[in-house]
């Protein structure tokens, strides 16, 4: 496992992070025993960044992670997320921060995160979404900074809204966030235009999520696959989206085969591609079994993607918008 610094002031974190969404049970049935085995195996392999959220099973993911962390002697970096109070997701341009991230709400929510994680200090607290409407009066971030001063939080971050990832650029330049969590993958390469260079310029840590496009870029789905209604992928790949995605993954596989990358699976290529982006500290991958932990952790030590292939892969950037919110 290779390590990178998380921004200019953060710790060394593993290039491959552990994504804890599936541990909450929203990606199909998940036994806690399997989650615990996955966490232990990932840590054994050098993974030290674990990412979760309040919304992952209403705290279930956090609690499972806390139980494992208590059993380990390694220094682990735990990141979690606080969602906004009830209202539209992502926040509407007309939402007031006072209604979604008030000081009292944030303090109460952070206390719940501390209880679930069984800790006195959260290494990285991320607001789970944001709106550009609050950039000129970012009071929620000032509340989090106060919590940092009180010793309850180590670093402050924002998990970008898919609809407007660039909304964090001003915040990075204003020094209001220590880290951003962004979507960057073979299909969604827009952050390379400005967001990632600004993060590097300002020394802001970058954690990449959705490197496998909810599993699609791992090459494991066919157009005939179906997902249960309580599975996130049921909505994400609704209508003709599954077929359209499969066709594009086939084209990516053709590029990979031309270069004879025998040591790479399609999932390996997708994860490694995200790791090559400017300023990226870690790529969190969804892990729900010990086998997946082994597969994903191994990508860190695989050889670099050849430059000629890397440039060729840029053609797969897909301007589809936030397709699961509409067409």
UniProtKB/TrEMBL annotation:
<dbReference type="InterPro" id="IPR023210">
    <property type="entry name" value="NADP_OxRdtase_dom"/>
</dbReference>
<keyword id="KW-0560">Oxidoreductase</keyword>
<dbReference type="GO" id="GO:0016491">
    <property type="term" value="F:oxidoreductase activity"/>
</dbReference>
<protein>
    <submittedName>
        <fullName>General stress protein 69</fullName>
        <ecNumber>1.1.1.-</ecNumber>
    </submittedName>
</protein>
<dbReference type="InterPro" id="IPR036812">
    <property type="entry name" value="NAD(P)_OxRdtase_dom_sf"/>
</dbReference>
<feature type="domain" description="NADP-dependent oxidoreductase">
    <location>
        <begin position="15"/>
        <end position="302"/>
    </location>
</feature>
<dbReference type="InterPro" id="IPR053135">
    <property type="entry name" value="AKR2_Oxidoreductase"/>
</dbReference>
<dbReference type="Pfam" id="PF00248">
    <property type="entry name" value="Aldo_ket_red"/>
</dbReference>
């Amino acid at each position: 496992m290779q390590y990178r610094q998380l921004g200019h002031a953060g710790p060394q974190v593993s290039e491959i992070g552990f994504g804890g969404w599936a541990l909450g049970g929203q990606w199909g049935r998940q036994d806690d025993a399997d989650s615990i085995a996955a966490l232990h195996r990932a840590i054994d392999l050098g993974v030290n960044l674990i990412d979760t959220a309040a919304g992952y099973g209403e705290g279930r993911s956090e609690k499972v992670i806390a139980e494992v962390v208590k059993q380990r002697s390694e220094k682990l970096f735990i990141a979690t997320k606080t969602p906004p109070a009830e209202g539209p997701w992502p926040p509407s341009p007309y939402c007031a921060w006072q209604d979604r991230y008030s000081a009292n709400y944030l303090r109460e929510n952070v206390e719940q995160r501390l209880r679930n994680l069984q800790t006195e200090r959260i290494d990285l607290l991320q607001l789970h979404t944001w709106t550009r409407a609050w950039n000129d009066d970012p009071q929620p971030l000032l509340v989090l900074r106060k919590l940092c001063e009180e010793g309850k939080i180590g670093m402050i971050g924002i998990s970008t809204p898919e609809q407007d990832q660039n909304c964090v650029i001003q915040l990075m330049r204003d020094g209001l966030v220590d880290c951003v969590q962004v979507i960057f993958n073979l299909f969604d390469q827009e952050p390379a235009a400005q967001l990632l260079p600004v993060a590097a310029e300002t020394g802001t840590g970058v954690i990449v999520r959705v490197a496998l496009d909810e599993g699609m870029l791992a090459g494991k789905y066919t157009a005939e696959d179906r997902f249960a209604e309580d599975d996130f992928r049921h909505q994400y790949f609704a209508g003709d989206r599954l077929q359209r995605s499969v066709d594009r993954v086939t084209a990516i596989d053709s590029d990979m085969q031309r270069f004879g990358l025998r040591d790479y699976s399609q999932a390996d290529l997708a994860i490694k591609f995200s790791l090559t982006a400017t300023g990226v500290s870690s790529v969190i991958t969804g892990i729900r079994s010990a086998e997946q932990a082994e597969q994903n952790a191994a990508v860190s030590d695989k050889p670099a993607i050849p430059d000629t292939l890397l440039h060729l892969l840029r053609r797969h950037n897909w301007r589809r918008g936030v397709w699961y919110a509409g067409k």
